[in-house]
Design a protein that fits this description.
alpha+beta, homodimer, DNA-binding, two-stranded antiparallel sheet, two-stranded antiparallel ribbon
DNA sequence: CAGTATCCTACGTGATACTG
DNA sequence: CAGTATCACGTAGGATACTG
């Protein structure tokens, strides 16, 4: 009676959830994207159990999202691969949603800014082929070849 | 030895995960956004256990993401609230990531298109305050008031 | 059709001690 | 510091039957 894997679901969302859908995965990825790259650092930062962290790091490395390497001092550290950095839109979308819908009375928590200008980036949103921002009710799903049989 | 809640974490990402981080939640939300709004429809579509679906629907409704109402025939159905629709960027980001990194040999699965033009939307990405697309290495996090103490 | 009600299991998670 | 090794636990998740 194993957990049902989403692998057979032929749905990109399910595939993604299958890889980064565990409770801690995205938080670990966020920490590493912030430069918290050592085991103990991450462990303290998140308060996650050591064995869980170990398991997740291994799994994410196998999935090609993280890369394990030695830092200048010879200590192990984890870095995001390009595949891992590609998750930034996911992290940012969730962060923006939390900012808006589960705010802190004290104000913003983390703001992502453009390094050049220092101005905050736009909240994550949908853009049409020309780059104009559009609304969720302006789009519709269409089934591609993989779903037409 | 309960599961550690992310509530105290003062992190928007954790807050979001606390609400939609369960394995099935985002898949249920996607189904409903596609117009699969009845209990049995969702259940068959996802193959999720009925009691799990029941629990999740209740939880998401309480969280203000879903709204339960009767359709024209008097049957119960679930709809996304505005708060729920605000999760579209999350769903789309994950879907696009899956498209790219866990592709199907048969080609695309679901493509989201602009209703007006029929052209696919842009893959979800980061945009600066002017609306220009920028890269993940062009941004940096800054700590807001809620984290400065 | 839209759930509830049971019963069951294994996985995700946690605490802590230990090792090179 | 970077894990591994145990041991324990609860809950998410699953199968199925039942009800209005």
């Amino acid at each position: 009676m194993k957990l049902k894997s989403f692998k057979g679901m032929n749905c990109s969302l399910a595939q993604t959830l299958n890889i980064v859908g565990e409770r801690w995965s995205l938080l670990i990825i966020r920490d590493i994207s912030f430069g918290t790259t050592h085991f103990d650092e991450i462990q303290k930062s998140l308060g996650v159990a050591r064995n869980m962290l170990s398991t997740r790091l291994k799994q994410l490395t196998e999935a090609g999202i993280l890369r394990k390497e030695a830092d200048d001092a010879g200590r192990s550290q984890y870095k995001l691969t390009d595949k891992g950095w590609d998750l930034m839109p996911v992290l940012l979308s969730m962060t923006h949603w939390g900012d808006k819908h589960v705010p802190d009375e004290a104000g913003d928590r983390v703001v992502f800014v453009d390094q050049k200008t220092g101005r905050p980036i736009q909240p994550m949103g949908i853009h049409d082929a020309d780059g104009s921002r559009i609304n969720y009710y302006d789009i519709k799903p269409e089934f591609g070849p993989a779903l037409r049989r």
